[in-house]
């Protein structure tokens, strides 16, 4: 298969995603955002939820905001050798054409009732205090791919405020977007938040891609 490398060049990635059936592009000139329902089977989602529960710990954020309530979910790094994790990785590669070497390890998140991730962008602020620490090896982020593993009883939607779009969690639904504009500059219109879960729990997996190959 051909890959589109880092994703810094938007066109081949968007073309690859749009070749798959069932993909919707969110109609906005401000950002490139796609949704694909039923991207993963309920069985695979359940296997990933079990893994997240086995390894989760309180989430951290880069560039401390001084707001302890900014990201209150729990995070789990998933075992790259696990068959369920390999299957998701392969499905993401097949959808996007992005080179897996440019991807950060797949990460799981769990939000309990009242937990949220307030408005943020996934790219690192080039002038931020942590830029060197997080970006000196692999560079800044390019694309984000996120998959909901379940449907909380209430709340937990992902909101893109700048384009007035709210995406509801559904088991197996994928959301992906370019964190940049087609001219490669960082795109502030990708600002988004994981809204508070009101009932039940919310589980997602996220994969972020980088300008250069990922290295520890
Ligand atoms: O949970 C969500 O809906 C959003 C998560 C998110 O934005 C992130 O992990 O970067
Ligand atoms: Fe995010």
From TrEMBL:
Pfam families for the chain: 2OG-FeII_Oxy_3
Segments forming a coiled coil: none
InterPro entries found in the cross-reference section: Oxoglu/Fe-dep_dioxygenase_dom, P4HA-like, Pro_4_hyd_alph, Pro_4_hyd_alph_FE2OG_OXY
Cofactor dependence: L-ascorbate
Gene3D superfamilies: q2cbj1_9rhob like domain (2.60.120.620)
Keyword line: Dioxygenase, Iron, Metal-binding, Oxidoreductase, Vitamin C
SMART domains: P4Hc
Domain Fe2OG dioxygenase, chain residue ranges per copy: 102-211
PANTHER family assigned: PROLYL 4-HYDROXYLASE ALPHA SUBUNIT, TRANSMEMBRANE PROLYL 4-HYDROXYLASE
Record protein name field: 2OG-Fe(II) oxygenase
Lineage, uppermost ranks: Bacteria, Pseudomonadati, Pseudomonadota, Alphaproteobacteria, Sphingomonadales
